[in-house]
Amino acid sequence: MNFLYIVSLLLTLNNSIHATSRHFQLLDELNAGINGADDRTISWGLADDDDNTLTNWNCVIIGPPRTNFENRIYQLRVRCGENYPLDPPEVRFVTRISLHGVNEDSGVVDPRSIEAFWTKHSSIKQLLQNIRKWMAQKGNSNLAQPPEGSTY
Amino acid sequence: MAAAPEVSLSSEHVQRLLQCAVCLEAFNQPKILPCQHTFCLSPCLEGLVEVRTRTLRCPECRADHFVPRGGPGSFPNNLTIIAFLELSAGAVRREAVFGLPEAREPSHQSREVAPAAGGYHFVAEDPMAAGGDGGNGVFSCSVCREERSISRCSHCDQLVCDECRRDHMTQVRYDVMRTIAQIRRGLPQITDQLIILGRKEVQFQNRCEEVKVDISDVFEKHVRDLKARERALQEEVDVFVGRELRGLGVFQETAQVENASISSFCDSAEASLSLSRPITEGDLMEMKRQCMEHLETIQCYEDGITRPPTIKQIQASMESPFLTSTINNFGDLIITSRPLPSLETPSQRLPSRIDDRDLQDQDLSPESRLSRASVPPQLGRPMNRTVETIHQASRAVSISPTQGRRERQVNFELDQILEASRQPSHVRGPNRWDRQERRSDSRLTGLEAGRAPSIMRQIRERTRHRSLGGIPTTRDVLDEREESSDTDNDLLPIELQTELVRRRVETEGLGDDNERMGSPQLEAAFHPTPQPAIRSYSFLPEPLQYGNAVTETAVVLRSLEEETGPQGSSNSNTASVYVSTPRNRYNQKGSSMCQFGQRGNDLGELTCPRGVAASPMDDKIYIADSNNHRVQVFSNRGVFVKTFGRHGQDEGEFDYLAGIAVNGLGQVIIADRYNHRVQIFDRNGVFQRAFGSEGCDPGHLNYPWGVACDNMGFIYVCDKENNRIQVFQSNGSYVRMFGSQGSLPGQFVNPHYIAVSPDNKVYVSDSSNHRIQVFSLYGDFLFSFGSCGNLRGQMKFPRGIAIDHQGFVVVADSGNNRIQIFRSDGRFYSMFGSWGCQRGHFKGLEGIAILADGKIVVGDKENHCVQLF
Amino acid sequence: MAGLPRRIIKETQRLMAEPVSGITAVPDEHNSRYFHVVVAGPSQSPYEGGLFKLELFLPEEYPMSAPKVRFMTKIYHPNIDKLGRICLDILKDKWSPALQIRTVLLSIQALLSAPNPDDPLDNNVADHWKTNEKSAIEQARQWTQQYAKASINNH
């Protein structure tokens, strides 16, 4: 009975901690990230391999061709909160970039532009693909870029 | 299925026995698998079918079963369970352990019988449920639910009343009729196929006729060639006879004159003596002197001092096991049921390479043909003309694949040598003999493909010299062989020979380059004597004297062997020539010996250095200072020497240059990335020429990145955004290209850097596919290595690539910020480096080069410096 | 609970009605496919005395595909990695629809009793286990003390 009591205590404490599918979705995304996207233009992985909350992710976008981003390697930090994937992740560029919707001083991607496309079925892969699409859009593709490789 | 451990008749246990282990419900249409386990048909068994393999794994015992053609429904019913359910349903049901309220809802009990071929739906209630509702064992019709005399429907195995059964049968009838109509509609397909088959047959016969014509064309051509050779040899004999006869004639005339003058002297002297006329003493003495003279002359004849010129021996040497075996095995019919993949690629490449040289050949007189064959191929067309012609021919005769239908395809492959080299593991008898006979030769020439033509020429020249003075007798040939086998090379192991020649190539330096530029005079000057190892074969009469086609085939044999060497029959080549321990101690590298450059645009400062190159002439380091749009040159210790170039689009100006290479002449080749062109500078940094412009046609470039040169002076360019490699002559004229976008072997996604190995293999860093691909000089895919990851031998976005003189491959693994070293066959050897901005750390690796002393030059783009290891 | 297959309902009810000793699984109040699981460390194992939290999720295809299970409590075990992923054949290729949540959890409990360092998920732990089993077991015991007990108080 003691066991059951402790367990019930544990379970009640657990119930509201996070969105229930969060961990398993992120584990799936982690597995998918090992293989990378089909065209190898983006990649993602855990920032810390031991982080069992699966919160912080390191991502890379290779700038799309025929733009000023071409071939540059952009590193991003993605933070998946406790309510992921219901709430979109927070995204920040580590590599300096000049791109609409990205704060020039901090590299933080405007949450509104992420919310614009984010659904509870979205993934980090789709997030990165969307950002890469922005780079290729008119008005972005010709932006003068900071020196390659510089970071925030 | 949770079977009761003890035999128990408790309703709970009975209930569990009647429950499917998958859906945890009472069985619905229970089917028994070959392993004797029973499950519901739908959805349990249906959900378990592996559609691709048509198998099903038993959830209980994991036995795999083949699913019958009719689907899992064709497994036999478990009649025992059905009967049990029917009998005991009512009683059991009331005590159902999991008697949830939902369980009684009819929606869970009634199931849809899977529609058969037609479209009707026959909704039937589970007999068990029906029994449950009746409660007294009298069954009701599962359709109209009325209790009448019912029987089992033979079509769908349900209990129904006669009326419903009649209706049902009418439906089945319509269904059958509909199916028959459907079959009728399908019949024309068979007739269509018959017509198509007839057409195919005609096509096929025509094809075979064409192949026959092609065969005779080829053979006629070769017969013509042989005839021409025959004429040439005969003419040569005529010339020889004429000259020898002239020599004899001269001697004859002299002898006749002497004969006449001596006899007339005898006559007149005798006459004057016999007339007993007084002769002055002086005259007598003069006569005596003349007598002595003539006596001497005659003595000369007697002693053999004066004698007619020796008649030179002449004989035709026509022994050629090579030729005989070639003729015996010449041509091959390839019969496959699908298109030949090996023939597709060359024939796709062909349109740009078809030329009329073959036609020209036939117009030439035998003499000029002979001399033509001895002239080395021009720079743009290195020895591959036979390959080309063969490809042309094979394209002409290969039967194009026909849509959809499998048809036997006849293919006439023109040259079994070519074929043998494509399938190196399968070498036929005569060929093998031949190959062994000349193995060392072909390896020697193979190693330095650029020299093959010149060797051929030397051989030819020697042979011709000989034939002017008399064709060498067998004895001569034997002597030559013995002599040469006494000299060093033949006794040495093959590896050493190769090594020797390679060293010779290295030391010859400038001479070789001139030769590559195709200047015969210079070449003659630099090669006064042929190499002994080569000479030992140079008098073998077999392949070299039988006219164009055969000799050229021999050349092709060599070049192809050289290409396929590491993969194919001479696989030992790699192992023996390229020793497994490098002279360059890669496993002791890792600490930076020298670091130079820092961010900025002053002299000696770098901003995003990309390509680096080591000049083979003076061991200087050339750096593509990309964001400063200039080239900077440093000594091999990192001391600034000079710079050239600036931002712009004119000659000698750059826009974010990337790859850089220095060829054997000291020319600097630069990929001018944003200008979509390649520029060439001389060793002093003076602009020489530029070629390429934006586009995707052959010869056009789209963000070219890495460049490399082979030892014949050809320029290889990574045409990055076009996902291909292009090859140019050193004068900038387009030669060929290979690769397309994709991740299959031979395809690229953003190829970045390129290098040519000492054994003439082309290594490409296929960056976004995270691998290195290796090709022959002609773009045939050989093998690839590396995959995405950070383990040993894996790589992420490989960039720079360089190959040392032993064939070890140094790769800039930019995504992992480390340098990896591989053996020439792609096996991992060692690695060093990590992310950071200290010495020995990297941020954004780009180009790699190797100095003469083995130091690795690394361009570190984001640390804006160059490091030596 | 709309759309929830009857099999899941049945399994849930049976789990609640006939709990397995040392294992509790409670469905989430918002998502019936998600279970909060607590497994007690088996006796005579280094995990004895610990209570390990797991999460279990039944994917859309269940029971045709395996449930997803993960340890939330840190545990030192050669077949469980730092992210809590479990290397267990019945969760992967050996899954069979005849298995149930109950059997899966029993298997996990058995895995705690009998670690299998020859089929490791975490190489470091497995190496430790193989080279020095005693010290590895001690480590596991220590982690159990540190994480599997403290979690009750910390949360």
TrEMBL record, chain A:
The keyword Signal applies. It holds the Pfam family UQ_con. Keywords: Signal, Ubl conjugation pathway. InterPro entries: Ub_conjugating_enzyme (IPR050113), UBC (IPR000608), UBQ-conjugating_enzyme/RWD (IPR016135). The keyword Repeat does not apply. Residues 21-152 form the UBC core domain. SUPFAM superfamilies: UBC-like (SSF54495). Residues 1-19 form the signal peptide. This is Ubiquitin-conjugating enzyme E2 variant 2.
From TrEMBL, chain B:
NHL repeats lie at residues 593-637, 641-684, 691-731, 738-778, 782-825, 832-869. Residues 136-179 form the B box-type domain. GO terms for biological process: proteasome-mediated ubiquitin-dependent protein catabolic process; protein polyubiquitination. It comes from the Eukaryota. CDD domains: NHL_TRIM71_like, RING-HC_NHL-1-like, zf-HIT. Residues 20-62 form the RING-type domain. Residues 338-384, 423-446 are annotated as: Disordered. InterPro entries: 6-blade_b-propeller_TolB-like, NHL_repeat, TRIM-NHL_E3_ligases, Znf-RING_euk, Znf_B-box, Znf_RING, Znf_RING/FYVE/PHD. Keywords: Metal-binding, Phosphoprotein, Repeat, Zinc, Zinc-finger. GO terms for molecular function: ubiquitin protein ligase activity; zinc ion binding. PROSITE patterns: NHL, ZF_BBOX, ZF_RING_2. Residues 431-442 have a biased composition (Basic and acidic residues). Gene3D superfamilies: TolB, C-terminal domain, Zinc/RING finger domain, C3HC4 (zinc finger). The keyword Metal-binding applies. PANTHER family: E3 UBIQUITIN-PROTEIN LIGASE NHLRC1 (PTHR24104:SF47), E3 UBIQUITIN-PROTEIN LIGASE NHLRC1-RELATED (PTHR24104). This is Tripartite motif-containing protein.
UniProtKB/TrEMBL annotation, chain C:
This is Ubiquitin-conjugating enzyme E2 N. The keyword RNA-binding does not apply. It comes from the Eukaryota. GO terms for biological process: protein ubiquitination. Keywords: ATP-binding, Nucleotide-binding, Transferase, Ubl conjugation pathway. The active site is at C87 (glycyl thioester intermediate). GO terms for molecular function: ATP binding; transferase activity. Residues 3-149 form the UBC core domain. InterPro entries: UBC, UBQ-conjugating_AS, UBQ-conjugating_enzyme/RWD. Belongs to the ubiquitin-conjugating enzyme family. It holds the Pfam family UQ_con. It comes from Elysia marginata.
